[in-house]
Give the backbone structure.
Amino acid sequence: MTVPENKPFYKVISLFIKSAILFFSFYFIWKRLKDTPVDFDLPVLFSAENRFFTIAIIVFMFLNWSLEAIKWKLLIAPLEKITFSASLKAVFSGVTVSIYTPNRVGEFVGRVFFLEKADKIQATIRSLIGSFIQLFVTILAGILGFFILEKKYFDFFDMQQFFSEDYFFLLLVVLVAVVVIIAFVIIKRKIFYLTIAKYMETFKRYTLNELNAVFCLSIIRYIVFSFQYYFALRLFGINGGPVVLFSLIALTFLVTSAIPTFALTEIAVRAGVAVCFFGTISSANSSILAASLFLWIINLAVPALFGSPFIWQLRFFNR
């Protein structure tokens, strides 16, 4: 966004936006930690019995976001060449912005406005491409996890509790509504469609090898945070066969990624889904809840704090 002649005014606006982002991020993290029903005992977490799991979860957090930084660096390369360090800063600042937004949709803001030269709309589209590929991996893994449980452990789930007739009818209504809205936009909003069309050219700039690389990085990243979840479950005493645990983890990721959430309800949704699935193998709901909250702290709250200094480097207006 180009800054008009009144530069001091836009500098004030930029400063206000950055300050607001940091305020809401810090407040949201503080509020969530303050209201959490779980008290984490650090000496216990780092005891000889649990030290491996705790350290592995923390190390995998850095590996997780490093992989995402490599992926973002690759995605944005056709528009702007950035270093791994700059990409990692952009990813962390994205976490800071997104931590209080619905379904963390604000993540692209921290990344896109960290760039110096790239077109912001095209950069946003590239961010969405990365997100869609990661979601595709999550869907594939979730479906695989479900069929493993149903085939290997016959009738593992009581399907009626998940797919009642009322739920199916509601899902059908939502799908029909989505189709109608999309058709309305395409038919009645040709200007919007033509405006977006020119930005769709960004897809043609990727080679098959580049998309395969992004896909492979997404798979590796999925494996990393799956192992994180596995270690967290073991850390809080949830035991089970690796096949069962990883299949349930895949289903948990699938459902939590599909459910629309707001900042104030995200943790509750994550915890509720975790209890729903892992409750099939354990009655220790408090431990399942603790594992889910601990992962939220390590994977989102801590990176959001890491990204907070980089918010001041966001470029909302070209200068």
